[in-house]
Every structure is written in structure tokens, then in C-alpha cells.
Amino acid sequence: MIRRTSKHVRLAFRAWRGEVLLFFALVLASQSLCLSNDDVDAAPDALIGYTEFRTDLSLGRHANVCTMRARLVRADGVGRREIADNLAREPNTWTQFAGWSPDGNRAIVGCGWESSENAKWEEEHERFRFTPDGWRYDMYLLHVRGVIRQNGKGGSKPINLTAIDRVSFYNTGLFFWPNDANTLGFQALIDGVSHPFRMDGDGRNKRDLTAGSKGFAYGFGASPDGKRIAYHKDYQVYVADADGSNVSHVRTDKPFNFSPRWSPDGKRLLFVAGEHYNCHPYVVRRDGTGLRKVGDRGTYRGVVAFLDVPDFHGGSSDTPVWSSDSRTIFYTARIGKSVELMRATLEGAAEQLTHTKPGSLNYHPHVSPNGEWLAFGSTRSGTRQLYVMHTKGRKQHAITSVKPGSGAMWPHWQPRPVDRAD
Fold it and tell me: Comparing C-alpha atoms, which of 392, 386, 396 is closest to residue 371?
């Protein structure tokens, strides 16, 4: 009798012990899930560069554009500050955040100036007039660490690379050549025609990659291995060797092809193709074969109005971008009465990422270096603010808080954090 009772006790103890172990396993699992969710919700330790400006000044496009200022903010929305403020002290001058060095230590800042007389002529004729005495635009590099430690004031002096051995009064699109920190690319306006250029890291030895061409070349970028380039010229996409030779036309049979972007693995190009204001995301292999439509923007024109007053230029192009693993793309499309962020596979399977109130615009997606976050613009609050969203958890938060009559646009993720000492 005693033995049977002891046996039952031992069995009961084992059952109890099993339940206790199962309980703790479930607790640990739930804690693990909580940690995972916390990781998803926590903004990455990185900076985002962007541009703030007025949107409602009544004197037209130029009056608002010349209020643009390059800024930085942490991905959690803390620590907003202006950079390169000394570049915009001259009247009719503005700055725009345009990118980063690969190591995240230097910011790329564009600085523009336009005379009041030329701006008035453009408003009256509703078109640009680029002349050396009426316009100036250059690209600068600025060390971020020094600027942040001094709260955006002072710091290292911005270096105007496009003014060294100058080839044009109007230079845009500066970027670092992949796998070559001592080479940069940019676009220069020559006799009214845009040309892609390469130059050394000190701004010297500038080389026109479409020398002699009369076609307007834009959307210039280099492949991840640095061996090939892509651009659109007269709204047709072209690829070439890094020195501009061996040019080939990417044929789509579409009249409008715009803004080619290399995939991170270098195997494909992404661009929009179709009719002007009715174009959609397409991908093509590196050699120009295998053209495939991978998304549909519906009736979305693909242009974001960034002013609240009439703008003769129409707005800012809203183009698709690659995911960090080259397997999907992010783009924007009209869904009902809103423009929403979308993700699509290379086979064309689409997924809606944002669900905002009717009339909202979500635009300009930019992917974080680790591929887990998106920065983008949205009018959901009634003003043009910037937001950050995790691509898995879909948690979103604003990182700017501009007042009505102002806007914050064009986000650029810092490639990697630097010692900010803030």
C-alpha cells in the first residue's frame, strides 16, 4: 500500500514538474516574443537627412524654394537640426540634403541660388531659364560629426567639389562611386543639356561620360560593382561601361522611361515606363533583357506637389526603390482616394503597406541600410511630414513636426551611425 502510494506520488511529481517546465518555457517564449516586438518597434540608431521649407508663400515657386534648408534628425524623431547653415546666408540662396558618403561621416548638400529677376521671368513664362547670370547650383561635402557636436553651427567647412575645375554653373546629383571612395559622380548642365560626369574625390579630373551627345541625360547612377552606369536620355534608358563607352539602349517600346536604379546585387535595373504621368515600375536584367512590369500605380501621376501655391514645374518625381535584398521593390500607387505605399515581388505580387485616410498622399520611400525600415513622406496630418515605418511590424511614427505652411521632404538614411556625442 505504501509502495503504491509512493509510486503515485512520484508520478504526480513528475507530471507537476513537467507542467512547471512547460509554464516557464511558455513564459520565456512570450518574453522572447516581447523582445522581438520591442526590436521591431525601436527605431534604428541612425540619422536621416532631409529638407525643410515653406510651402505657402504667395510670390510663387522661387519664394518658397529659397527657404529650403538641409537638416538632420534621428530616426526616432529626436534632435532635429540644420546643417550647412552658412551656405544659405546670401539672399535667394537655399540648401538641400542630397545624400551621404558610404561611411556615413559626410553629408552631401546641394546649394542653389537664383536671381530675383530670373525667377520673375520664369514665373511669367512658366518655364525654367538656366543662365550663368541667373542661376547657380553646386554640390558640397560636409563632415557630419563636427556639425552635430556643435549643434549644427560651425563645424567643418563644406567643400564645394563641383566648383573645383568648374565645368558648369548648374551641377546636381552628386554620389560616391561604388567600391571606390576616391571617385564621385554628378550631373552638369552644358549648353542647356544635362551630362553625367565622373571626377576624383578632390573634385578634379572631371570627365564627361556622354561627351558630344545632344540628348538630355538624367537619373545617373553606377552599378554596385562600379563597372557599369545607367541613365535616362530623352526619356529612354541606357547602360554603359563606367567610362561611358559600350552604350546600349534598354528597349521597352514605351515613350517615357525614367529614373533607372541598380539593384543592390547589381543584377537588375528598376525604372518607371509607359506614358508621361501614366507610367509604372518595370525591371530588366543588367544586360537589358527580361523586361517585366512588377507594379501598377493605378491612376497616380507619379508626381508630388511640394508647394501649396501654383508651381509651373509641377512637383517632385516619386519613383520606386529596391529592397536591400534585391527581391522586392517599394513604390506608391493610388488606392481608392489615397496614394499608398506598396511592396511588390519581382513576379508582380503586390502588398499594400499603408492604409491612410482618403485624400492622403504617401510618397518618396527610402529604405534603411539594414532593409528593415522605410522613411517616407505623407500628408496624412494635413502637412508634408516625414515618417518611419518598420516593414514587418508596420509600426509608424513621425520624425518631423513642421507647422502648416511648411514641409519636410526627401529623406536619406545614414549608411551607418557615427560617433555623434549628443
Answer: 392
